[in-house]
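Subject: for your reference before the review

Hello V.,

The reviewers asked for a structural picture of the protein, and I figured it would be easier to keep everything in one thread rather than splitting it across files. Below is the amino acid sequence we used in the manuscript, unchanged from the supplementary table.
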Amino acid sequence: MSSEPDALPPFDPYAVSPAGRSQPPPAHAGSVLLRRRHGPDEAAVRAVGWALCALGLALCASAGLDAARERGTPALLLLSAIVLGAGFVRAGLGLRALEPLARREGIVASALCLLALPVGPILGLYALSTLLGRDGALLFSPDYAAAIAATPEERPRLRPRAALAIWGPCACLLACVGLYSALMELA
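And here is what came back from the structure prediction:
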């Protein structure tokens, strides 16, 4: 138990009170159940947000490395890579915060990921299936935002397969960026 006077013990619907009756649910029991039911989806959306941030930073870094090498890359191409990277970072940070507008931004960024071969389609398909599903729409609703505000102690956990689908392509992307920069040094 916490030392705070307002702290409620965790709700257990099967617990029996000392008098032999079931305990009444706390005021935020519905919010707790909603968060526990959709917690893995929430964690997946937040992880997709991190992955989009990483992809956006990689785009900006690759544009900066290319400009530093002065290979004659057109300024418009560098500027578009930086703007696209900043858009990915913006979408990722919005998904991390579960902002309603960020869902649309995340869908656009995920669709653009489909073009980033070889690992982008994996991340893009997973992100699109997460964001376009029924649960994805619920995560960005005002009801779910109220449930998050009512239950700050709940921490959603990512499913192991989802973690592999998100962090595997990110690791491959970072390896590809490292390999690209190493090959450019040799050339």
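For the response letter, the relevant points are probably these. Residues 94 and 102 are 5 Å apart (CA to CA). The longest helix spans residues 29-69.

Happy to draft the paragraph if you're swamped.

O.
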